[in-house]
């Protein structure tokens, strides 16, 4: 495996890409990045350091962005795919699986306000089963999700509403179907039907 260090006055051009002061690492006989190296993108604030295969990010590496964001984990054919840890410039952090750069599969997201979500993901949205905790209030929901909304069966504990608990059916983020509500502060309880977040029918 050959190794090159770019950055001299002449630089190095591979397949028409000017690499002056941008890549340091291994290349294959065809001149493609292959092995381990560090690459600075045209905006030098973006960097990748890790494994390459046939000119693409492939294997394990670290990708950093100018806003302070960082991804450490697996890459497949230049894409963030596999297991890894990502931190955004706004303070959010995610540990879990990715597909083509999106949170997909199983993972845990923590938010700067102290909130978190741990469970299933699809295309960057909560999907499947998972537990969400709202940071400022401490409210929680443990149950099913569809495309980022509470949908299916789940339990919500609302400390912000007098320590109220709802255990039952949900549809598009609203209580909808059969469910049981209890409020410890007021002593109120209700078992029965719900529609669009409101009691419906005889309970």
Protein model, in words:
Helices cover 0% and strands 64% of the residues. The chain has a 17-stranded antiparallel β-sheet, with no helix packed on it. A two-stranded antiparallel ribbon has the order 2-3. The N and C termini lie far apart (74 Å). The protein is elongated and about 75 Å long. It has 203 residues and is an all-beta fold. The protein contains no helices and 19 strands.
Find the count of extended strands (DSSP E, 2+ residues): 19
Amino- and carboxy-terminal Cα gap? 74 Å
State the CATH superfamily name of the domain at 1-91: Histone H3 K4-specific methyltransferase SET7/9 N-terminal domain
* Secondary-structure element order, N to C: EEEEEEEEEEEEEEEEEEE
Shape: elongated
Q: Summarize the biggest pleated sheet.
A: 17 strands, antiparallel
Radius of gyration: 24 Å
Mean pLDDT: 90
* Oligomeric grouping of the chains: single chain
CATH class category name of the domain at 1-91: Mainly Beta
What keywords describe this structure?
203 residues; mainly beta; Histone H3 K4-specific methyltransferase SET7/9 N-terminal domain; two-stranded antiparallel sheet; 0% helix; elongated; disordered N terminus
Summarize, please.
The chain is mainly beta and 203 residues long. The chain contains no helices and 19 strands. The protein has a 17-stranded antiparallel β-sheet, with no helix packed on it. A two-stranded antiparallel ribbon has the order 2-3.
């Amino acid at each position: 495996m050959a190794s090159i260090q770019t950055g001299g006055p002449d630089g190095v051009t591979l397949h028409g890409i000017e690499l002056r002061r941008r890549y340091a690492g291994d290349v294959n006989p065809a001149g493609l990045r292959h092995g381990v190296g560090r690459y600075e993108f045209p905006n030098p604030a973006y960097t990748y350091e890790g494994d390459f295969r046939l000119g693409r990010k492939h294997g394990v590496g670290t990708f950093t962005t100018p806003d302070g964001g960082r991804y450490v984990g697996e890459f497949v054919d230049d894409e963030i795919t596999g297991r890894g840890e990502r931190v955004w410039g706004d303070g959010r952090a995610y540990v879990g699986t990715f597909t083509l750069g999106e949170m997909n599969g199983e993972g845990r997201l923590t938010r700067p306000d102290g909130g978190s979500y741990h469970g299933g993901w699809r295309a960057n949205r909560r999907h499947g089963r998972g537990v969400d905790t709202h940071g400022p209030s401490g409210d929680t929901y443990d149950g099913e999700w569809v495309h980022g909304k509470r949908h299916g069966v789940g339990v919500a504990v609302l400390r912000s509403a007098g320590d109220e608990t709802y255990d039952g059916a949900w549809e598009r983020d609203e209580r909808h179907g059969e469910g049981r509500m209890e409020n410890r502060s007021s002593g109120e309880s209700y078992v029965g039907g719900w529609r669009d977040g409101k009691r419906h029918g005889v309970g």
